[in-house]
């Protein structure tokens, strides 16, 4: 149900009184248990405090309105709220949820300002945000971090427990210390990965007994189909990587581990009893020469077309005004049949254009910089979220969204789809290929606007890195 403007304001003006000292007038009938020495008073208040009692005085209190000299407004806060300028609260004193003027509803607390500064579009939404849109953001920094043995690494995950809307994909952010292993394992879900830092040796075999071993480095991708057993070992400099699973309910804690396989079978069946499950544990350095770990059976090695890795770090980016894209999908990485992804760089001020996907939800990971996106969802709902490095975003199919670089460094993010081809619908191209008269009748736009619409997909649109100017397309740099 939607609150009307007036009932919403009414709700906000009901002052909480829970922190005020309550007048006491005798104990209630409940007997307190004996307290420690030095205790005084009683645990519960008197019955006379029950409400609907005109004899209880309302204490006089100071105004809860924060006067203008006790806070600062960030550039852009006074602009028309329909413009929805990005509000950078990084350095303003005592930030307040004001848009479209210099006064408005202040926030006397309780609050943790750091959240407000990081999420200014939730705290001070653009005037165009409306209705209910499910939460689209999860920072890995709020996930429980599970540590491996003896400082060997850690992993933290995001699945439907953290982000209920994210039903099609889940993510894990994992760190392996120098030479550490992610134990030999397999799982129900397919595992797509992007190396974030350092390098690792990965090894696996398939049902045919064909083996695979490869070294991958920051920017490279791997994929292990559901059920294919694999191992991951960091080299001497350690590593960090991102895993994306094709099941929103996937949990890293539910992987099938080789050590448990032995533990959970009768000892008479498994001659050798392994200790406890290892998960992430220290290892001996991998030999530099990969040939030494190339174990090949009679079935030979995995055919090239079925390779479990792709050296995306060496793919030349596709350059467009405002940024670059690297697309990887089954057209070039066939084993990952349902994973289509784009690693995208957006220059300051530029924006991944307004688009949507037709067949898949989008799971997004932010590698660098800061961004905001608005999810537009029919009917009549939209909400804007802010992101920084290490955050996960999720946009259900076919909701429209953009990703705008709100910072001063290049924005780098990964879009992952469950689709056999990376594709999207570009609003620019859609309108550019719609007969002009139709667009004009719908949007009441002039010919000059129509002439700017492209017939090809821009993917990224350049813009003014000054987030508080209203000359959005200008580029003062
Ligand atoms: C990798 O880690 C090193 C050491 O902390 C850091 O300096 C570097 O910026 C990281 N690289 C990336 C791509 O994050
Ligand atoms: C592993 O050995 C096989 C058979 O000799 C060879 O075809 C393959 O290229 C080797 N792989 C690596 C990563 O060295
Ligand atoms: C906000 O402003 C700070 C400096 O005050 C700047 O470093 C940062 O890049 C800006 N953008 C974001 C999203 O924080
Ligand atoms: C950004 O634009 C605003 C409004 O035009 C202007 O006041 C401000 O000085 C500009 N900031 C920078 C860093 O150019
Ligand atoms: C916006 O900025 C561009 C590039 O600096 C400039 O050419 C243009 O005149 C500006 N437009 C307005 C309305 O100021």
From TrEMBL:
Annotated residues for binding of Mn(2+) 1: 185, 187, 191, 230
Region (Disordered): 25-71, 92-112
InterPro entries: Bicupin_oxalate_deCO2ase/Oxase, Cupin_1, GPI/OXD, RmlC-like_jellyroll, RmlC_Cupin_sf
Binding site for Mn(2+) 2: 355, 357, 362, 401
Active site residues per record: 415 (proton donor)
Signal sequence bounds: 1-19
Keyword Metal-binding among UniProt keywords: yes
Record's keyword annotation contains Metal-binding: yes
Coiled coil feature spans: none
Gene Ontology BP term (one): oxalate metabolic process
UniProt-listed Pfam families: Cupin_1 (PF00190)
Annotated GO MF terms: metal ion binding
Cofactor: Mn(2+)
Cofactor note as given: Binds 2 manganese ions per subunit.
Domain Cupin type-1: 140-282, 310-451
Keywords per UniProt: Manganese, Metal-binding, Signal
Protein name: Bicupin, oxalate decarboxylase/oxidase
